[in-house]
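Summary for the steering committee. One of the milestones for this cycle was to obtain a three-dimensional model of the protein with 4-fluoro-L-phenylalanine bound, which we needed before selecting residues for the alanine scan. The sequence and ligand used are listed below.
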Amino acid sequence: MEKSQGKRENWGSRFGFLMAAAGSAVGLGNIWRFPYMTGKNGGGAFILIYAVFALVIGLSIMVAEFAIGRRTSLAAVGAYKKYSKNWTFAGVLGVLSAFFIMGFYPVVGGWSLAYIFKSVTGLLADQGAIEGIFGSFISASGEPIIWMAIYLFINVFIVAKGVAGGIEKASSILMPTLFVLFIFIAIRSVTLPGAGAGLEFIFKPDFSEVTGSTFLAALGQAFFSLSLGMGCMMTYGSYLNKEENLPNNALLVTLMDTSVALLSGIAIFPALFAFGMEPAQGPGLVFVVVPSLFAQMGTLGPLFSVVFFIALTVAALTSSVSLLEVVVAYLMDERQMPRKKSVSIAGGIMVITGMLSSLSMGALSGVSIFGVGFFDFFDILTDKIFLAIGGLLLAVFVGWFVNKEDLKDELTNSGTVSFGLFEVWYGVVKYVIPVAIAIVAVMGIMAIEQTSLMIFGVGLIVLLAAISKKL
Ligand code: PFF
């Protein structure tokens, strides 16, 4: 495999790339999804399994994605295809994952956007009413859809401006802001009376409730949170210049992402226990617990709440633009469409899938596909099936089908930087990850309730593989 020499948009600076990659990783996955998955899966034990998956499997996969992306200077589909047409389907699976995640992500992004405004219009007036307000807001047929559409429009606008111009600039300013804010919220939460029970919940692992589905949930969460298993980091790597140290960048992004997830656990659970709320309440967690925390702060509450939801919206945006970018890069690279046209087409379809997801919280709650509503359909299909399989395919591809010397050349910038752990990384990718994911997938799939959805998901992947040469 020759190095690609073509002219391609590049990141403006190292900091810009790092912020964009960390921006993609840090998002609703850390702040909205991680706490509620932790709550649902019993707390500390889930966090521990998650952290091991993120730091061993996730980090190694990220290094691999950066390497393949930069080596080929192509987004996921093109990158796989450049090696072998038989592998094109793995890239297409990634594009499909991005598309499906964008089926629900803008809905939650829209909630967050709405909460910026609700923070100053009475949301915090009565702490006891916060949960009810959330429930009736998300199940309405008009308001959440409008917010979802506005949120999606902002994505379209940023991605239409291109990688370095839009994505990079937005991330560089807003990511650091988010981090500082979160530290502040976490301090407030752990100093509440009764907060100790929450810290115990997240730091004292109880393995008695751990099952196969806990492992699958933790693996899916690690992939989702680190933006892996779907070619996103490959696409970002393809815009990266040849001087950057790939393993170092991957390590930094992984550490940042994992620390924001932990920080959000530390921000949410102590407050949740202090308020006597239910940890397993699901997707509403952050939208109920955090406002309750702010409601107690008196006149400063609304101000903090506004800043928090601005930060959450921004964290969500820097992630969803990367998802949209995966779809857009595919249309540009493989279907020869100009950027603006690609963005409009993708955005147009996503408005419809977003509407279906949003309505599945209310008017369409009776409609089920493969046993679940639209929102859960998009979520479970990607998080529990596609990303893990996408990661497995990538590991097998890199470990068994890409020339080892080429990988070494790419990861050491042709020998100019050192990557002392190369052999360890290579062994993990080649042997450990395929076996580990296969075990977790089988265990998880056996324990999962949505059998028909699983069969549908796996069937779709097999179908893609079967028609791979035509893709
Ligand atoms: N990592 C993002 C988050 O945690 O919110 C979500 C995401 C972005 C997943 C990009 C996958 C992806 F390719």
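Key point for the committee: The chain has one domain: 14-470.
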